[in-house]
């Protein structure tokens, strides 16, 4: 099961303590996963789709509790879609469905006509408990979160730009969350890319078990990154060392070929040249340790530099 599915399972198994939050979560889910089936006489049917059996069962219970009528789950196979097995949650045409959506601010009745509302009603975002529940519903409906061992990414997909803006405002109403919106194949995606914010979002949605798993995976990921940086750094040092060593060997050869040879050098330099010549691959600190008396790395480096600059 993907990390995303696991997180959804944890959220779906959570308990909502208050009716206000149940309504907010139902509204969030319906907004991104549902559609209306007007049936005349003010009655409407509801259809909601999900790929997850856990999510389907959860919302069946939630909606039935709020509406007081039975709903039905049917299975559809969608060729060429991911996932191919799709679950539909249906409420047959009734007044109760319309009343629930009106209460949740998803539709309004204007002069007897039902109109879909683009905005999230202020009453639903006034308290933190409801804002959290609304986000849970949106995430369960069309959200996903990447496995932190691979990358840091959280997103909720929406059908239009205006509603994406509403979702973004909702997410950004929590401390230190800064969501972005991008367009992807005709949909508007509200996303987070920073590890810390994705982690915070799991906490906001009460996915606390996966918040810990996230922390853990992230720590391992970052440790791996640091180890790679260290070994790259080691390689770079070795390369620099090899280049410097080769320069010193060339300088020594040039001095040997000149009149007087190495004997023309002051004693300290002569010793350093002999040590380098005998140990072409030794580090500067190792060369320093070979001298008699031994000298520090920086003193050895100074002598080797003077060799290279010797004319
Ligand atoms: Zn609430």
Describe it.
The chain has 311 residues and is an alpha+beta fold. It has 2 domains: 3-221, Endonuclease I-creI (Roll); 234-309. Helices cover 56% and strands 19% of the residues. The protein has helices at 3-13, 19-33, 53-67, 95-103, 122-125, 128-142, 161-172, 195-204, 208-257, 267-278, 284-290, 297-309, and strands at 34-40, 43-50, 72-77, 85-94, 107-110, 113-116, 143-145, 154-158, 180-184, 187-192. The strands form 3 sheets. It has a 4-stranded antiparallel β-sheet with strand order 1-2-4-3. Strand 7 and strand 8 form a beta hairpin. The termini are far apart. 30% of the residues are buried. The site of zinc ion has 8 residues, from helix 2 and helix 6.
List keywords for this structure.
alpha+beta; Endonuclease I-creI; 311 residues; 2 domains; binds zinc ion; 56% helix
Task: Sketch the major β-sheet.
Answer: 4 strands, antiparallel
CATH fold-level name of the largest domain: Endonuclease I-creI
Low-pLDDT ranges: none
* Series of H and E elements: HHEEHEEHEEHHEEHEEHHHHH
- Output the CATH class name of the largest domain: Alpha Beta
- Tally the helices: what do you get? 12
Number of domains: 2
| Average pLDDT number | 88
Shape: rod-shaped
Secondary structural class: alpha+beta
The CATH architecture of the largest domain comes to: Roll
Portion of residues in beta strands equals 15-25%
What separation lies between the terminal Cα atoms? 70 Å
Helix content: 55-70%
Strand elements, count: 10
Bound molecules: zinc ion
- Order of the strands making up the biggest sheet: 1-2-4-3
